[in-house]
Design goal:
About 60% of the residues lie in helices and about 0% in strands. By secondary structure, the protein is mostly helical. Helix 1 packs across helix 2, helix 1 runs parallel beside helix 3 and helix 2 crosses helix 3.
Length: about 100
């Protein structure tokens, strides 16, 4: 008889989702053990972890200019075409 529901766990997907927390040292001991066991056997997840670490190193050196970010967002909002007013509610009549 075939399986109707698949209750198997996808350790590969679970590990990939936990990699950022693994890298930051924020996993619970049981999660840490499971991720390390998977990494030992999975070259693809080890490569993903290495890519995340490279990205983290590149981003860490970027300057953080909050004022410039808000100013750019404000300029985009102000440059956007005006939105139409919502329709009057069914109970109100426009005069």
């Amino acid at each position: 008889m075939g399986r109707i529901l698949d209750f198997s766990r996808d350790r590969h997907a679970e590990t990939r989702m936990l990699l950022p927390w693994y890298d930051s040292g924020a996993l619970e001991p049981d999660e840490l053990q499971a991720v390390e066991a998977h990494l030992a056997a999975c070259a693809e997840c080890r490569a993903e972890l290495a890519a995340e670490r490279r990205l983290e190193a590149e981003v860490a050196d970027l300057p953080l200019d909050v004022d410039a970010g808000w100013a750019a967002m404000r300029a985009l909002i102000e440059a956007a075409p005006p939105r139409h007013a919502p329709f009057a509610s069914a109970g109100r009549r426009a005069k």
